[in-house]
Design goal:
The protein contains 15 helices and 15 strands. By secondary structure, it is an alpha/beta fold. The protein folds into two domains: 264 residues, Alpha-Beta Complex (Amidase signature (AS) enzymes); 134 residues, no CATH class. The chain starts with 9 loop residues before the first strand and ends with a helix.
């Protein structure tokens, strides 16, 4: 059995085509009475039941999804004021806690953890969204082994890229990307430390926003590092991503990084400007994708031609000085931060589960036949061997990584008066390999991830039927401008 998106399939009585579905279209249909949230949720639950055994995108469905939908329909019938995502199903990456569904990070070690709504889940409920289930992910957000296979977890198995037999969806928000690309949910939430939203979005041909650090709360999310972690939208269109971003964003007293979020826009759909490329200054970062295949490089050239045709002012190339040195310092810092942040998270987490990274390592050894079947836990062991943030080398590594990332981007923005830096997000999806692990060859996510600046990836073309995306990177809190540019590009690309 192979995946087929069932071309021409329509959603209930609405007549909306699954291939072109949008949040705005679904909202209009529900407002007009040609679709109910109950019908919409049942449609997606049915698709999950049919296709998830093939795709491995979903770890669990919400047992109360139908009840959530019926409650929205009842409130609508009574004339109640509803949020901007009223009745729309949203799939949640399973490192985010939801009441009744613990954040497992794909590991059986956390199945017994307590489960309350993460802050962002409360935001989604306030927007009247329906939490339809939990998405599969690369176990422990791809921070367990140096030879991991993206999209694999002990609880969810291997997520499969719907665009090619045996192709990998990339990680770690793999299930979120697969589910949206395959029409198992219209919206999904992913998380990123470095590349985990933009890379799977690129590989699966969807839109992903890695927001400015602090725009979205991290409370209730299994951490890697508070210095870089963020959640973000994963959708089929920039318009849908903007709608979801507005629902997710907001200040949270439990996450000090979100203080500045209180002054940010509440509705990002207002920035959807189809003419935004005209006059925009965009720098092309080619060095980051120097190892791209010739066909992927051709996609970037086509993008540059399209931007020029839309009257954007192009600076080609721009240099991000020192960007090639970020990763070495970043990984040293992340190992120290992971130990401290995960230990603090586990210590505060209720329920039955390992209480520290050291206990988690022992759990994996004791359950090796289930959790260590394809790859090991070298990163766990390396992190445990550190002294966390108390080690002098931690502060040096973090400062060097952040300085390199911000200097690279800030210098380019300032020198060339840029609205954004654009780069290939990656090469086309590789074949999943449980023997040798992932085959990353191009990744341009580090400057934005380490600096804490926003990035949006959007589908730009394809190579042999596999999607290829480009990323637009901006300065801190520049989501409105990036959304405008990405929407304009998406409309021009057609």
């Amino acid at each position: 059995m192979t995946f087929s998106e069932s071309p021409g399939e329509t959603i209930g009585r609405s007549g909306i085509d699954l291939d072109t579905v949008t949040v705005a279209g679904l909202s209009q249909a529900m407002a007009a009475g040609t679709l109910t949230s109950a019908e919409l949720v049942q449609f997606y639950l049915h698709r999950i039941a049919v296709w998830n055994p093939v795709l491995g995108a979903v770890i669990s469905v919400s047992p109360d999804a139908a009840d959530q939908a019926s409650a929205v329909d009842q409130a609508r019938a009574e004339g109640a004021e509803l949020g901007p995502l009223a009745g729309i199903p949203v799939l949640i990456k399973d490192n985010i806690s939801v009441a009744g569904s613990p954040a497992t990070a794909g590991s059986p070690a956390l199945l017994g953890a307590s489960a309350q709504d993460a802050f962002l889940i409360g935001r989604l409920r306030a927007a009247s969204a329906v939490i339809i289930g939990k998405a599969n992910l690369s176990e422990w957000a791809n921070f367990r082994s140096t030879q991991s296979s993206s999209g694999w977890s002990s609880l969810g198995g291997q997520a499969v890229n719907p665009h090619g037999a045996g192709r990998n969806p990339s990680g770690s928000s793999s299930g979120s990307a697969v589910a949206v690309a395959a029409g198992l949910a219209p919206l999904a939430v992913g998380t990123e430390t470095d590349g985990s939203i933009v890379s799977p979005s690129h590989a699966c041909g969807i839109v992903g926003i890695k927001p400015t650090l602090g725009l979205i709360s991290r409370s209730g999310i299994v951490p890697i590092s508070a210095e870089q972690d963020t959640a973000g939208p994963m959708t089929r269109s920039v318009a849908d991503a903007a709608a979801l971003l507005g629902a997710l964003a907001g200040a949270d007293q439990a996450d000090p990084a979100t203080v500045a979020a209180a002054g940010q826009p509440g509705d990002y759909t207002q920035f959807l400007d189809p003419a935004a490329l005209a006059g925009a200054r965009i720098g092309i970062w080619r060095d980051g994708s120097a190892q791209a295949t010739a066909a992927a490089a051709d996609v970037l050239d086509d993008v540059v031609s399209l931007l020029r045709a839309q009257r954007a002012e192009i600076v080609d190339p721009v240099t991000l000085a020192g960007a090639d040195q970020i990763g070495e310092h970043e990984f040293v810092a992340l190992r120290h931060e992971f130990k401290d942040d995960l230990n603090a998270y586990l210590a505060a987490l209720g329920g039955e589960h390992p209480g520290s990274l050291a206990e988690l390592i022992e759990f994996n050894i004791a359950n090796a036949d289930r959790v260590l079947t394809h790859f090991g836990q070298e990163i766990f062991e390396q992190a445990e061997a550190t002294s966390g943030r108390s080690a002098p080398e931690w502060q040096t590594a973090r400062e060097q990584a952040r300085t390199l990332a911000r200097s690279a981007l800030d210098s380019a923005f300032s020198e060339h008066r840029l609205d954004a830096v654009l780069a290939l997000t990656g090469n086309p999806a590789w074949l999943t390999d449980h023997v040798l692990g992932d085959h990353y060859s191009v990744g341009t996510s580090a400057p934005a991830a380490v600096s804490g600046y926003p990035a949006i990836t959007v589908r730009a073309g394809e190579v042999s039927g596999l999607p290829v995306g480009v990323s637009l990177i901006g300065s801190a809190w520049s989501e409105p401008r990036l959304i405008a540019l990405a929407h304009s590009f998406e409309r021009a690309r057609g």
